[in-house]
Amino acid sequence: RVHHFDSSGTYQRTVRIESTADGLRAFFQDLFGDGSWLTLALQPELRNEPGTYLRSAQQFVRFGPDGKPMQPLARVEGRTRYVHQFGSITHFPFVPFAAEPLARAAGDRLLVVAGGEPELEGRDLEGRLVRRVRLHLDRPRTATVYARYRESALADMDSSRRAQYDNFYGLSHPLPEQVPAFQSLLVDGESNV
Length: 193
Description:
By secondary structure, the protein is mainly beta. It contains 2 helices and 14 strands. A hairpin with a 2-residue loop joins β11 and β12 (109-113). The longest helix is centred in the C-terminal third of the chain and has 14 residues, at 142-155. It is globular and about 50 Å long. It starts with a strand and ends in a 23-residue tail after the last helix.
């Protein structure tokens, strides 16, 4: 649901976000210049055998302000999870350095980064690719920062979770060669990234 408030903070109305044409639940992400909504719809792969990887697809979908889907704009691969069993606990942590797809509305454009590469896509409100910008970044190799990443992640956990994640981080996972290029995507009111 999307709750609308006026500029003074007074509640106006609530709009229910319908399912996409594919029957997926969508979650509000951002607002395009014409008042339509950018939403994220997840397409998870549902396998729960310990020792397997869960891959998912994410779809960025444009919705009208009435909560009804208009059209899909982009489909990207989501972050990979691992089905990890530690004692009697099964959990689904993200594989370290798996890139999170990010999208933002910028006026009449959808901006997307996905796959961890230093590349930004611009799409129009129909989902057509209109621009691709590739940045030349010197990204660290995952192997050179993994030990520091593991140590930092474990330092913030309580002892019960620390043992579980220490075991998970000690496993051999298919890591990307380089760390992801983006951790967030911010766009200002003038569509500057």
